[in-house]
Amino acid sequence: MDHCCGLTMVARLQDVYSENSVFIQDVPVLYCPTCQNSFIAPEIELDYHLFAHNCATDGLRSASLADAAGDDKILGILERYPEDIRIRTSQRVVQEQIDSTLDLLNVAKHMDDKVWQQELLERLQMFIRLSGVNRL
Ligand SMILES: [Zn+2]
């Protein structure tokens, strides 16, 4: 779940506007620098939902998740999913992703797994499209 496009996702702090209209700051979000898929870090999702609910009940419009979950827990998540080479070089795709996908494609061909082959081919096409494209 914490992998996407063949690499580990990266954590960053983001401000999130919750379903019950509370502006929650400092939420650790995992995101994929390649396809830009993102979601709230699973380790803190429950804290986030409870906090957003409690804030809404108390009539708060904005609050920091660090007040509820604690700095240590939030920093721990940031450390577990550190910035990778894609962030440091501002690249959407790195060679390692293309190489490992080609390796997997060979395995899929050996296993004659057509569905997997198709998934990997689509991933490669996306990588080619994003190669040389700078991260937004
Ligand atoms: Zn991705």
Summarize the structure.
The chain is of the alpha+beta class.
Q: What does this entry look like structurally?
A:
- By secondary structure, this protein is an alpha+beta fold.
- The chain is built from six helices and six strands; from the N terminus they run βββββαβααααα.
- The strands form two sheets. Strands 3, 4, 5 and 6 form a four-stranded mixed beta sheet that branches. Strands 1-2 form a two-stranded antiparallel sheet.
- A hairpin with a 5-residue loop joins strand 3 (10-17) and strand 4 (23-31).
- Helix 5 (95-110) packs antiparallel against helix 6 (114-130).
- The chain is elongated, with a radius of gyration of 18 Å.
- The model has no long low-confidence stretch (mean pLDDT 93).
- Zinc ion (ZN) binds at residues 4-5, 32, 34-35, 37.
Distinct ligand kinds: zinc ion
* Termini Cα gap: 23 Å
- Report the structural category: alpha+beta
Overall form: elongated
Number of helices: 6
SSE order, one letter for each helix or strand: EEEEEHEHHHHH
Level of helix content? 40-55%
State which percent range the strand residues make up. 15-25%
Oligomeric state of the chains in view:
single chain
On the 0 to 100 scale, the average pLDDT is: 93
What about the largest sheet?
A: 4 strands, mixed
Which stretches are low in confidence, meaning pLDDT under 50 for 5 or more residues running? none
* DSSP, total strands: 6
Give the C-alpha Rg: 18 Å
**How many independent structural domains?**
2
